[in-house]
Design a protein that fits this description.
mainly alpha; 3 helices
Length: 93
């Protein structure tokens, strides 16, 4: 919704530029058009990035990243730490 408001603001600024009778009106129109167009383009880019990004829940934790780095380097990772409940976690292999 915001991007459409910015686009309307830019168009209104352009209308002011072409119909303004004083220098002040033309300057205000140019300012509105410039801010509106830049905001419109940035909001389009933000929507594009948000559509292609993964949710935070899908990100790897720092411990998982360290384990992946060790596995890629060929060094064995240390055994997993016991769970807070006192039981050791099950092996996934």
């Amino acid at each position: 919704m915001t991007r459409w408001i910015l686009l309307v603001m830019a168009l209104l600024g352009l209308v002011l530029v072409f119909t303004g009778k004083t220098g002040g009106m033309v300057a205000i129109g140019l300012l509105l058009a410039l801010v509106g167009l830049i905001g419109f383009v940035l909001s389009l880019a933000a929507a594009r990035v948000a559509a292609a990004s993964r949710p935070d829940a899908a990100m790897a934790s720092p411990d998982e990243l360290v384990a992946l780095g060790r596995r890629a380097a060929g060094t064995p990772s240390p055994p997993p730490r016991p769970a807070p409940g006192g039981r050791a976690p099950r092996s996934r292999s």
